[in-house]
Amino acid sequence: MKLPLLLPCLALLTGCATERLVFSDEFDREGLPDPAVWRYEEGWVRNEEAQWYSKADPANTWIEDGTLRLTARELEAPRPNPAENPAGPGRPWGPARDAIRYTSGSIDTKGRFAFQYGRVEVRARLPKGKGLWPAIWTLGVWGRHPACGEIDIMEYVWSSHDRVWATLHFPGRYEMPADKRSGAYAGPEVQDGRFHLYGMVWDAERITFTFDGKPYYTFALDRVNQPDGTNPFRQPHYLKLNLALGTEANWGGPLDPAVLPAAFEVDYVRIYQ
Fold it and tell me: How far is CA 61 from CA 18, 192, 246, in A?
C-alpha cells in the first residue's frame, strides 16, 4: 500500500533545475481519506450552494480502486436541517433552509499541510451535468477571505462546459476586470470524460496555470500588492478539493437533480518544490 507522502515545506529555489516531491496522495488506500492529511468541511459552507457537506460519510467521500470519489447525491428522503449552522455565523441562507436534500464531499489540508510556491499536479476526471461544480483550489493560512488569498486551480461549471477556469481572489478583486484575474482553457478534450492533469506553477513573481501540462494563463503577483506591503499570494496556502452543487444564486447555476449521483474523481495529488 502506498501511503501519502508528507514532507516539510521548503522554499522554492529560483532557477533550480531539480524538483523535490513535498506532498503526495496517490489514493491507494481504500476507504476514507487519511485523517493525518485531509480534513472534512461540514454543513452549509459558502456561495448559497445546494449541498450539505457531509463529514466522513462514505456515500460522499470514498477511495476505491486507486481513486478518490467526491460524490454528490440527492437524499431519498430530506433530512431535518440542524438548528445551528456548523459552518459558523454569517450564512443565514443555510439555517433558513427547511431541510437537507443534497449531500456532497469537500476535503482540505488545513492544519495538516501548507506550501508556499511550487508546482501542483492533480489528475482528475470531471463530472458532467447542469449545476455540478467541481473545484481544485487553495486558501492562504493567514487572514479571513478574501484577505488570505484564494487560488482556483480548476473550476468547472455547465454554463461553460467546454472549458475549465483558473481564478484569483484577493482584497479589491472586484475593482479589477474579471478577465484580468481569471483565465480559461477551452477545447473538446475538456468534456471528453477522461482523466486530465490540472496544475499550476507558483513562484514569488507569478502563477501559471496548466491543462495537461500546457500553460494557458499567467497572473503576476505584484498586481495585488497591498498598501501594508503584504501580498496574499506570498504566504503559505493549503489545498482544497470539493464537488459543489449550484443554485440560481451562484456561478454554478441551477441544479438538474437528474444528473445525480455524480462523482468528481481524483487519481492523485502531487506538489513539487
Answer: 35, 24, 19
**pLDDT given for residue 5 in this prediction:** 42
133 compared with 178, residue with greater pLDDT: 133
Amino acid at residue number 253? G
- What is the Cα Rg of the chain in Å? 18
Angle, CA of 203, 208 and 213, to the nearest 5°: 115
> What does the angle CA 98 – CA 104 – CA 108 come to, to the nearest 5 degrees?
120
CB atoms within 10 A of CB 192: 12
Q: Are strands 182-186 and 163-169 parallel, antiparallel or unpaired?
A: antiparallel
- Cell 500546457 locates to 214
**Measured distance CA(124)–CA(190) in Å, rounded:** 11
Can you give the pTM of this predicted structure? 0.92
Distances (CA, A) of 245 to 122, 150, 167: 21, 19, 19
Q: pLDDT tens-digit profile of 188-242?
A: 999 999 999 999 999 999 999 999 999 999 999 999 999 999 999 999 999 999 9
Per-residue DSSP letter, 31: B
Spell out the domains of the chain, with CATH numbers in brackets. 18-272 (2.60.120.200)
128 to each of 100, 186, 252, how far by Cα in Å?
23, 15, 12
Q: How many CB atoms lie within 10 A of CB 8?
A: 6
Could you give the CA distance from residue 117 to residue 99 in angstroms, rounded to a whole number? 41
Catalytic residue annotation:
150, 155
Distances from the Cα of 155 to the Cα of 107, 132, 169, angstroms: 15, 10, 13
Question: Could you tell me if residue 128 is left (phi over 0), alpha (psi between -120 and 50 degrees) or otherwise beta?
Answer: beta
Q: In this structure, what C-alpha cell is assigned to residue 109?
A: 489540508
Dump pLDDT digits (tens) for 81-101.
986 666 666 678 888 888 999
